[in-house]
Amino acid sequence: MTNTSSPDSKSIGELVDLSGRTAIVTGGAMGIGLGAVRRLYEAGANVVIADVNKDAAEVAASEFDQPDRVRTVVADVSSPEDATSMVRAAVEAFGALDILVNNAGIYQGSAFLETSLEVARRTLEVNLLGVMLCSQAAARQMIEQGRGGRIVTVNSVESVNPSVLGLSHYGASKHGVAGLIKTMALELAPHGISVNNVCPGGTRTPGLSPLMDEDAIAELEKRIPLQRMGLPDDVGRVVLFLASDLAAFMTGTQVIVDGGQTLRGAAV
Question: What would the mean pLDDT of 113-119 be, rounded to a whole number?
């Protein structure tokens, strides 16, 4: 019998209510990751902040007024063991796993002809293989639970067009993620697991300061139709949307969150 039921019959509040659900956010201690943590927590989810920086994760966790709904775990997403331990920690703390947000990533500028094998390899390990490993661990748990789930990956506009020169290795990792999530979506759909990604453009995060001064940021903002850099919360809102029942019929999709930046075309 065809299932014609739809979450559309619920109110907006019900559709974004994540009470009782558990989310892991990798790289969740600051920047876009913390923006996602805040929105998921606000919607009622229990949240595990997974990060390589233990101190930063604990500082982030301390801002929430219901500490029993937030946990921290130290994890290197490029480690299969850490990916598995991260999921285990979430289940031990909250009983299940419903949402994975793949946000952890590294960003190091290097001209193509000068990019070392070490830099390229580490970028691929974290940005691409990290998404694969964490998604495998999370999906296995979701399948065992038998109630579906959501996998949301924070990708980049570099997977659409190169916006900044000197990021060939980074762009390759992000193009890889764009391809990975499409096949993941097909293979995990029979289990009720949706797989989508968010592609931010230039975003003001703590990691931006060492890379761009205010003059460079001002120049970039001139290229953005909405005339400003993105904020972590701009991305966090879209992560919440994709993690909620508002996006119940979306999978294998990328959502660009860049103020129109990619409409300007590739970098020159």
Answer: 96
